[in-house]
Design goal:
Elements (H helix, E strand, L loop, with lengths): L4 E6 L3 H12 L5 E7 L3 H11 L3 E3 L2 H5 L6 E4 L7 H9 L3 E5 L6 H14 L3 E4 L6 H11 L6 E9 L13 H4 L3 H16 L5 E9 L1 H4 L20 E8 L4 E7 L9 E7 L2 E5 L8 E7 L2 E5 L10 H14 L8 H20 L3 E2 L5
Parallel strand pairs: 1-2, 1-4, 2-3, 4-5, 5-6, 7-10
Antiparallel strand pairs: 7-11, 8-9, 8-15, 9-10, 11-12, 12-13, 13-14
Helix pairs in contact: 1-10, 4-5, 5-11, 8-11
The structure holds nicotinamide-adenine-dinucleotide.
Length: about 350
């Protein structure tokens, strides 16, 4: 039997335990987790015990000195993605790093360059691509059935969904609010479906009034308003080199019905609404045949039990079978570059250029 990949985890909190480690655990013939690192030793131990791992660390550099480790998950808060990722790549390990790849595009550039220089895989933790609806839709779009997708409207909107744990409301540790935290998912899947056109410019606006207002209801409990330094709502319009445009809306708080998490594509042959976790209504297609209008719901959307587990399986498969990164670092750079331009545009009041060079 071929050698099993040896995996290390850096940052063993929420997403590491609920998603990455479950993913590795699901393919015991292909890989085994051998070490866990968390700056909080109790969290490292708790995660290690839960998944039967013997080695724990509080400093990722010590863990990376183990030559046995082939690949790592970086699942630390956004501010701590850069250093462990670069250190791991330089230590010869493949990396899957949680989204957003960086706090800003400059950090992503460093990570992408390092991956290129070391020849190691850098994957971004954007699991929605692996969901059944996205798999269906990608095939549909790539087969040309939508024609040219010239416009999309991407929404990751929560009515009252400020994360009350971790550092999600602190700009200096996150890089931003809902735009960079959940907007990143819908923007990624929209661009993925559109073939990742090159962004040129972006214009945006953010607000923070609701997030800072004391005593508003929040599904996830109370949080310290004085720490709320991110936006609660963001909107942006992004223009691409091929003439297409995406409008992105993202919120932790807003007065709206429900919590839409979807993208709507407008193509020259058909339109579609895609909800990665939308159950029965996950894909709707709108088209015209012989001057008759049809609203269609496909019956063969693949059933993917966990997009998170599927993303980890894709990471391991890419390493073992010498495939390209399933979610390349360059895609993460494009997303962060767009967010940089949108945040800047909100401050300047002008449309800003998106710089994706690296
Ligand atoms: N893909 C998704 O859907 C999804 C969902 C949630 C979170 N995330 C991302 O995952 C990352 C972590 O989020 P979380 O919700 O798991 O947070 P968390 O706070 O639950 O876990 C982060 C862990 O990292 C540890 N840590 C911090 N700095 C460290 C360092 N330098 N070295 C080692 N350990 C360190 C913390 O002690 C903590 O245990 C964030 O980037 C977030 O955006 C992604």
């Amino acid at each position: 039997m071929a050698k099993k990949l040896k995996i290390g985890i850096i940052g063993s909190g929420g997403i590491a335990q609920s998603c990455h480690m479950k993913g590795y655990e699901s393919i015991p013939d292909l890989c085994e987790m051998v070490a866990v690192c968390d700056m909080n030793p109790e969290i490292a131990k708790q995660a290690a015990d839960k998944f039967g791992i013997s080695q724990t660390y509080t400093d990722h550099r010590e863990m990376l000195a183990d030559p046995e480790i082939d690949a790592v998950s970086v699942a630390t808060p956004n501010k701590y993605h850069l250093q462990p990722t670069v250190d791991a790549l330089n230590a010869g390990k493949h990396v899957i790093c949680e989204k957003p790849l960086g706090m800003n595009a400059e950090e992503c550039r460093i990570m992408c360059r390092t991956a290129k220089e070391t020849g190691k895989i850098l994957q971004v933790g954007l699991q929605s691509r692996f969901s059944g609806p996205l798999r269906f839709m990608k095939e549909y779009v790539d087969a040309g059935k939508m024609g040219h997708v010239y416009y999309a409207r991407a929404q990751a909107l929560r009515r009252r969904g400020v994360p009350a744990w971790g550092v999600f409301i602190e700009k200096d540790k996150q890089g931003g609010g809902p735009l960079i935290d959940i907007g990143v998912h819908v923007l990624d899947l929209t661009l993925f479906l559109m073939g990742y056109p090159k962004p040129v410019s972006a214009s945006g606006k953010t607000w923070d009034t609701l997030g800072k207002t004391p005593d508003l209801f929040n599904y996830w409990g109370q949080y310290d308003r004085s720490k709320f330094t991110v936006e609660d709502f963001a909107v942006g319009m992004i223009k691409f080199e091929d003439g297409s445009v995406v409008v992105l809306e993202s919120s932790f708080m807003g007065n709206l019905s429900g919590d839409p998490f979807q993208t709507q594509l407008f193509g020259t042959k058909a339109g579609a609404v895609v909800k990665p976790y939308g159950g029965d209504e996950s894909v709707q297609i709108f088209t015209e045949v012989d001057q008759q209008l049809f609203d269609m719901k496909p019956a063969n959307v693949p059933n993917v039990e966990s997009a998170h587990v599927a993303e980890i399986q894709a990471f391991v498969d890419a390493i073992l079978n010498d495939k390209p990164s399933p979610v390349p670092g360059e895609n993460g750079l494009i997303l962060n570059a767009i967010f940089d331009a949108l945040y800047k545009s909100s401050e300047t009041g002008h449309e800003e250029l998106v710089d994706v060079t690296f």
